[in-house]
């Protein structure tokens, strides 16, 4: 493992500024230095931040088993077999009955809610039971535990904050109340008869608001669209007139997505190109995620998980390539490429086996050609400051079906590594594309493949199940954003109203090939990768150490947990898994 203490990068910023001067433009300086102090938190973290700052000023910132092996990618990734299937209702109720004597923090003094006309499907009830039971959904070695006290908060503030329920807890309480009022199995006494007496007035309103949203989703699931619409209209009475809290914001965006789905199903709008009756093209989320802009840079700088992924992933690559003098990295989705400055600094530190060539190749399309070119120039300039022999290549294809091994340039004796940061899930809706990509990668015979993906199941063919999973996932995400960014911050508004809302719309309102956002959990990826002769590698202690250092660097790290489950690293916010990092080799 490498440490920044081994190197003197005191003049690094000046060198980078000189080399990159021609590719930078004048713009109002964003105060990155005050975002992070100079305290060392692992190898090259400060240099990484400096490099990211330089990139943020570039001109493109202004632009916005055998059976498993026989299953096709379409069947596998469409979540028919390889998802966490909810147990039958009877099993859920039996489990809850077994836990009836378990102590709960909320007293049983709630009135029985009026029963719904139709209960959730068995699978959906099982989902809410799983979320509502309070069980830990992860089983593995806990690396980082969330602290009970925020390091930046006074004791009085901590005590006050402990009176509040998190967004996930509000969703869980609402879900369990909804189940209890829906269940026709009255013979089983429910241990989670949540009381409003322990909730603040605003939290009580939020629980009722979420119940309305769940009731509307239930009606949509049974194609009772007019009832669903009326329930959504009732939500308006619960929104605050001023700044909305995370619960109200996540419900607002899910409500809008539900309305759009109802409008499509009832013929009010015809396709995804029409948004709520306004004839304009929808925000292209997949394209936007590949183009660097200031909003994404600002968000990823305050998001611990983004840097955990980069440092843990790069550490794994450094260990795998060992003393190889020629290194070829294939980045499936490069965006700004800042993570490769960390790799450069690690390689530049080698004394006994100096590097002869570092080559980075990225895959792109015509839409991404310009910014990829700029990224390559910027990385070349950075490599020059480090005296690293460097080559940047791009493979441009209109679709992955056109990708061939001979499009890549290889030198003799070079070692190949593949890096995929949220690039595979975007192709799940096009199984032939992702299969073509994986066949090419296998043919390249890389020594390692690093995969970072969203840890969520948003690909169920069941609408209600997909809706429920997404609601809990994005509830945790909005809670995270509430902690990281001020409510009136412009970049936060863009993150929520454009990027996050478009993902929610795709999951909730789109169907068939139009549904592009199809996250799946690590178990699905494991089964899929096995078909291509891939074997998961355990993350080293050094990689986990790097992840730990990064988390501890953030004040909000108190709410983050790192879990090693199997051989993968899971990143969670207040107990809800949001992301996984896994390392693979080809047999």
From TrEMBL:
Region ranges (SAW): 509-585
This protein's record includes keyword Transcription regulation: yes
Chain coiled-coil ranges: none
Keyword terms: Nucleus, Transcription, Transcription regulation
Protein name, entry field: DELLA RGL1-like protein
Pfam families: GRAS
Compartments where located: Nucleus
GO terms under cellular component: nucleus
Segments for region (Leucine repeat II (LRII)): 374-406
Main location: nucleus
Protein's gene: ZZD1
PANTHER family: OSJNBA0084A10.13 PROTEIN-RELATED
Sequence motif VHIID, location on chain: 327-331
Family as reported in the entry's similarity comment: Belongs to the GRAS family.
């Amino acid at each position: 493992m490498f440490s920044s203490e081994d190197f003197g990068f005191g003049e690094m910023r000046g060198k980078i500024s000189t080399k990159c001067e021609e590719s930078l433009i004048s713009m109002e300086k964003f105060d990155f230095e005050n975002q992070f102090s100079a305290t060392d938190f692992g190898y090259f973290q400060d240099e990484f931040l400096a490099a990211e700052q330089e990139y943020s000023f570039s001109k493109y910132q202004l632009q916005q088993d055998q059976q498993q092996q026989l299953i096709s990618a379409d069947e596998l990734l469409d979540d028919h077999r390889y998802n966490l299937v909810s147990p039958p209702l009877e099993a859920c109720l039996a489990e809850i009955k077994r836990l009836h004597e378990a102590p709960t923090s909320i007293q049983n003094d709630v009135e029985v809610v009026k029963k719904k006309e139709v209960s959730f499907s068995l699978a959906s009830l099982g989902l809410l039971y799983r979320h509502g039971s309070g069980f830990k959904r992860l089983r593995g070695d806990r690396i980082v535990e969330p602290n009970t006290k925020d390091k930046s908060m006074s004791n009085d503030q901590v005590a006050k904050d402990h009176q509040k329920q998190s967004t996930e807890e509000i969703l869980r309480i609402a879900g369990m109340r909804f189940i209890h009022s829906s269940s026709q199995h009255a013979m089983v006494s429910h241990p989670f008869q949540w009381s409003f007496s322990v909730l603040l007035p605003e939290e009580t309103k939020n629980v009722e608001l979420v119940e309305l949203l769940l009731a509307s989703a239930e009606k949509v699931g049974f194609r009772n669209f007019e009832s669903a619409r009326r329930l959504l209209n009732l939500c308006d009475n619960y929104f605050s007139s001023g700044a909305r809290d995370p619960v109200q914001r996540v419900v607002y965006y899910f409500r809008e997505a539900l309305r759009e789905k109802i409008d499509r199903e009832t013929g009010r709008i015809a396709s995804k190109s029409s948004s709520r009756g306004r004839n304009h093209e929808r925000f292209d989320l997949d394209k936007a995620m590949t183009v660097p802009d200031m909003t994404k840079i600002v968000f990823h700088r305050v998001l611990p998980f983004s840097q955990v992924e980069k440092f843990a992933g790069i550490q794994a690559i450094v260990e795998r390539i060992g003393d190889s003098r020629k290194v070829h990295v294939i980045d499936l989705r490069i965006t700004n490429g800042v993570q490769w400055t960390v790799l450069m600094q690690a390689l530049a530190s080698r004394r006994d086996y100096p590097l002869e060539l570092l080559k980075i190749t990225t895959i792109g399309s015509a839409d991404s050609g310009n910014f990829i070119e700029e990224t390559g120039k910027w990385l070349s300039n950075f490599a020059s400051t480090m005296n690293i022999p460097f080559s940047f290549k791009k493979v441009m294809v209109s679709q992955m079906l056109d990708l061939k091994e001979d499009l890549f340039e290889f030198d003799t004796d070079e070692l190949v590594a593949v890096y995929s940061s949220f690039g595979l899930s975007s192709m799940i809706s096009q199984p032939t594309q992702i299969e073509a990509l994986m066949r090419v990668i296998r043919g390249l015979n890389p020594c390692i493949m690093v995969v970072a993906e969203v840890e969520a199941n948003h690909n169920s063919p069941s609408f209600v199940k997909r809706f429920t999973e997404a609601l809990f996932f994005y509830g945790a995400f909005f809670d995270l954003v509430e902690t990281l960014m001020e409510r009136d911050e412009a970049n936060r508004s863009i993150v929520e109203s454009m990027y996050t809302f478009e993902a929610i719309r795709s999951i909730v309102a789109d169907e068939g090939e139009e549904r592009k956002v199809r996250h799946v959990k690590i178990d699905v990826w494991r089964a899929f990768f096995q078909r291509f002769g891939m074997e998961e590698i355990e993350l080293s202690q050094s990689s986990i150490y790097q992840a730990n250092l990064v988390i501890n660097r953030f004040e909000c790290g108190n709410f983050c947990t790192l879990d090693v489950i199997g051989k993968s690293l899971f990143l969670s916010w207040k107990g809800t898994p949001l992301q996984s990092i896994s390392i693979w080799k080809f047999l």
